[in-house]
Amino acid sequence: MVSVGRHENIKLLSYSEVESVSGYVGNFDVRVRRKARYIDESLCTGCGKCAEVCPIEVANPFDLNLSMRKASYRPSAQSVPNAFTIQKKGIAPCRDACPTDQRAQGYIALVHQKRYADAYWAIRREHPFPSVCGRVCSHRCEDACSRGKYDQPVNIMGLKRFVSDWAFANRETLPNLRDKSIVGTPFAHHPAPTGKKIAVIGAGPAGLTTALDLVRLGHTVTVFDSLPVAGGMMRVGIPPHRMPTELLDWEIQQIIDEGVELRLSTWIDDVPGLLDNSSARFGGPYHAALIATGAHRARKLSIRNSNHPDNWYSLDLLRQVSLGKPVDLRGKRVVVLGGGNVALDTARCVLRLGASQVSMACLEPRGEMPGFEWEVGVAEEEGVRMYAGRTFKEIVVKDEAITGVRCTEIVFRGFKHGRPDFDEIPGTEHILPADLVVWAIGQGPDFSFLPTDGSINTRYPVGIQTDNAMMTTLPGVFCAGDVHRGMTFFVVDAIGEGHKAARSIDRYLRGEKGLKEPQKLPVVELSRQEIESKFASGEASPRPRVPISSIPLEARAGNFREVDMTLTEEEALAEAERCLRCGICSECLECVAACERGAIKHEMQDEYVDLKVGAIVLATGFKDFDPSRVPALGYGRLDNVISSMEFERLINSSGPTSGKVLLKNGQAPRSVAILHCVGSRDEATHDYCSRACCMYSLKIAQLAHEYMHAEVYEIYRDMRSFGKGYEEFYNRTDKMGVHFYHGKVRGIEQVDGQLQVHWDEAYHGQPDQVLVDMVILSTGFEPQVDAAQVASTFGISRSRDGFFLERHPKLAPVETSTEGIYLAGTCQSPKDIPDSVAQAGGAAAVALSLIDQGVIALDPSIAEVNTARCAACGQCAQACPYGAIDLDSGVARVNGYLCKGCGTCAAACPNKAMTLIHYDDRQIVAEMIGALAAEVA
Amino acid sequence: MTISSEIQAAARDLLADGQVEVVIGYELGSRGRTRPAFITEARDIERLVWNQACTHNLTTYLNARLNPGGPGKPLPPGQAPRRAAVVVKACDSRAINVLLAENHFEREQLHVIGVVCEGILEGAGMAGDLRSARQLPDEGSGQLQARCQRCTERTPLVYDTLVGERLAQPAPSHPSAPDDLQRLEAMSPVERAEFWLAQFDRCIRCYACRQACPMCNCPSCLYERDDSLYVGMGIRLDEKRTFHLGRAFHLAGRCIGCDECERVCPMEIPISLLNRRLAVEVEANFGHRAGMAPVPPPFVSVLSSPHSGG
Amino acid sequence: MMFEPKIIAYLCTWCSYTGADSAGIARLKYPSNLRAVRVPCSGRVSPELIMRTFDQGADGVLVLGCHIGECHYDTGNHRTAKRVPVLQALMTFAGLEPERLRLDWVSASEGERFARIVNEFTEGVRLLGPCAWRQRRVWEQHLDLQDALDGAALGEAGGAA
Lengths: 937, 310, 161
Description:
The complex is a heterotrimer. By secondary structure, chain A is of the alpha/beta class.
């Protein structure tokens, strides 16, 4: 193998498949697809550091799934070429569903390996605010999780929170570690300045994400916000019992530490002035600006008395709470109008602020409330009364004070064109008692700061109008987040838009050198079978989901302590085991950080190579018979019944057990039975003999006898030891003390932890059963799984049992019926190594003698036209399968290079102007006449 | 205006501005029977007629007029392609499609005068003495030819000038006409063999059938070779049978059913039965009917669904 | 004496002829009435050739090609699949028993199938007896009569021709 890999005249295209073959002998055009290794073969030294750091473990097919290997792997230590490969199936559904392209599968695997710092870097590569999304996200990743198809999705949000909380707890020591979140990205800490300045209006998730990305590219970024605190809605919209402020403040501080300038309590009233510096007070001129002002304008209905001062906006209340301002609602009865997450946040805040009675009322019926289903239940537990399916007609005021909200119950049919569609149920009018009404029916952006000349266009009734690159109608001004969408969505969406805006702005500023849009592989979909086989191979745990715990109800009263708890370390590890690692490689980029040669290239794509060759030799091998197809032998059902190939790996000192063959209970077997002809010479499976099994069974017997010191029993139907030295090998095995019993195995049963094998056709005086610790099944050979497809690609036939068909079993064992394509090895029929090598030599010799001549002699049997007889009717041209005939100057004309000599044209010609050389009409008729002249023997 | 005068008017225009070199139509012969006419001069236009004895398939003359060197053979350099006008009935017009599909000439070389036909009478094209020998009424009276009784199109499919009113699709098959095909199919193979041998016994290999057929236009006919490769030139019964069966096969999917071959046979052999049997077979197996469009016969293309064969 | 039909089989080089070879290698038995004529593709077999074969005195004609979709020449067998059934209809109409002409598909490794088809076909033709398609020349018939008369004169029994 090594000499093949090193030979200057041999080009080895590994990890490749032939897609198509066209042409003919001497002139084949072969299209090869080279699958992406994601590692540059020419740079990789095979050091294996990437495999060491890779967190993804999968069952190792080289060891027949008896051991695990990493997503970054080398099949064996002796592989040629000796480079590693990264197995990437596609992108996991969790990553596909996340607007920030977060590689959840990656950080979950790192958690599983207790590499929490590495998990934190993997998260931070895309996500600057994991503590927020680890608590409040809509977790579309979980909705898409493949585990959800089987039982419950993985608690991805919980795991993300676990990592971010760990990072916060270890924030003193983190800076001492290498920041891997920028490895493998174009970003760096404090890189060389580009000289470009960008203004970001709005220090929310979108604005800060864009700022962080841009500053890491070397641009100078100033972030403005009208509030006295940064963080946008994350900071002032999510109350502390859901999102403790110190974690967010730490995450924002990290962004400032990278060099972002933050100017709070600043209202930008002149956006165009940022660019042309007509408003110098903002520190311009800037080369580009980003509007990320969010949607901070709450709405209320204009029903009677809704302008009474005790009608509060939810956002105002939440902001006050978040900024720590005192709000005293003791003794007050509060009705919160609205059914979404903001209403729920508000209602639960109001409870904690001492209200005596808190109710929520909304249009939607109970099961269709837009807020998180689980949170509706928690709010009720805490004491919020839910009044779903109502419309609000009036705020009842008496003696200048609010006394209640007049509602009627409705039949709600949903929103049509943004307007609610419902019917009031007559006779259901009632008043919800209230001293204070808080409106949480929705919010939108505030466009009042935009220039009045319309140079920055809004798209009524939604957000600011942009093109696909997120640029507004004013060149150089971009837009991202809630203000772009015109209504609220989730923090994670805003972060995703922030990244996209950063890429667009970078391209706007640096043109070709700017960031490119990422290319994504297709999404992996696992079938139920694949999921179950991952459990079976130990790649994932089938246990149920670990839920989030909460502090008890009593502990929540009157304070803003965080209600939900982080997963404990045991819980996190248990949950991380549930991940199915759908994409295999998750692109966590640990390998990139570890590789000292820079050989890892995750953007690699499949490559196509077009080859022109004169001859082709197929040596595509065989597949082991799967012994589970013979249920009586108990493979896969009984312990300690293994296949011969599994034994080979186990006894191999570089195998999964370093050469120790042990039973399931860990003990060494004292006796082993080797059963011949599994999947061979059997009408139910394959009726051919696989030729090599008898000899390899003897080899196994010798190994078992010598290295396992066990009693060895060979149960055979015949002993086919036909080759040079083979009979002698059999005799030596016999003399060693291996027991040979003739028999056709009927079945295997488990008896007291041992295996009882019984058979028919025992020789006279010999036993017909034996009790052993371990059974090895000598499995036969089958054609490869894709033999039919390969045969079709190369245009060759297969014999009845599916192996490739030789031209003649005696006289042409290496040729196929297609000229120029030859066969070698077990793809043609089962055989052992000496026979394979001999056949390969034969195939090489024939292939060489073909191309060595430099010219190919083509078959002279081609079609020929008698132009005097030809009427140019065109039937021959129509009939030709190769388009080798055209009509020219009133006669048919045959292209000798394309004609393959089938003679269909000659048969189609009505007056036989067309004939086939060497098979012309005269010759065939003469043959036929001669054949008929003879009498029957 | 009668159909005859319409045809004459069209012919006059075509010849006057030199659009065509010849108008192939029908005329009354010296003995009063209708026969083909080849008008090249304006003064002869009056000869053109139309009547219910216009039985001939005039498309059979197109090859000779348009391709003097042979079917599909190019003209000497400098010569423009020839153009001809031809008077056709609906059945004849389908022959034009078959000839076009087989590259005999281009559509632009033709000016087709299509006549909406009410049917041709028995005995058309026959001289008076032969008519009385066969006890047929005078020309212009009597019953329609069998092919006309089976006809399903009255209006030509290919035409440049249409003469006569468009008629509605007629009902096929005169109900009282006995279907010879069915009668033959009901016989046993031995009876059928005897029937055909009895028919072919009368054949004198005059090749009149072949000459009358527009589709039989090979430069040299396979069944008129002196090397006897596929059939001998003699009058052995099986030789004659092979000639007729072979010719019928060559016409499968190409024969448009004008039955002129049967009409011109001096020995009154019912050869159209063979062509009709094959037309039924081709239509059933391949959905192909000859001459409905200028497409090649179905045997030269790929199966649309796999057959597992006999 | 049992009637031994003369069967001509047109076999395509790549599939049915090799299938016949496979039958031979596997020592499968099939009637020796079969006379094989090898052609490159079943598409080479024209209806005129088949008629000529009957004219020459074959009692049965077998045309065997590659399975549809497996033709070595791509679609050569498609053309045959279309021509032969129509020829069959014509010859049946003209009085040839349909069992005397058969089109079938045999692949290179199907030796057993080849033998089975040949067996079936030969037995079918045997039951039909000699093919009356070939009309002997008048003077050949005269020669037979002469032989028969000579035979009678010499006192031979039976007098098979």
